[in-house]
Amino acid sequence: MQLSGITVLGFLATAAFATHNPGQSCSGSGYDCSNDFRSIVVCNGAQWVTAAACPSACCAWPAGTLAPFCSC
After folding, report:
1. How far apart are CA 63 and CA 34, in angstroms?
2. Which of 8, 31, 56, 67 maximizes the CB count within 10 A of its CB?
3. Taking the CB of residue 32, how many other CB atoms lie within 10 A of it?
4. Can you list the domains of the chain with their CATH numbers?
5. How far is CA 55 from CA 35, 36, 39, 40, 44, in A?
6. May I ask which residue range the UniProt record assigns to the signal sequence (predicted)?
7. Close Cβ partners of 44 (under 8 Å, ≥ 6 residues apart)
8. How far apart are CA 37 and CA 55, in angstroms?
9. How does pLDDT run across 23-41, given as a tens digit for each residue?
10. Which residue, 36, 33, 31, is CA-closest to 60?
11. Can you tell me the distance from the alpha carbon of 2 to that of 58, in angstroms, rounded to the nearest whole number?
């Protein structure tokens, strides 16, 4: 199967902006920035919960880093 550049860019854009709200359902485990980028959220196996608050909407997770962090 061959992917076009547009398909890959579309996937990356979706992955880059796929954030979560505390209380939203999830399964398994993971972490991410919240939708408003004011906190780092973790999946506890059932729902996303706030793990850390970031002032001024500064949660970041650049490519190549292992976990999100507050960048302010």
Report:
1. 17
2. 31
3. 20
4. 5-70 (2.30.130)
5. 14, 11, 8, 11, 23
6. 1-18
7. 26, 29
8. 9
9. 999 999 999 999 999 999 9
10. 33
11. 37
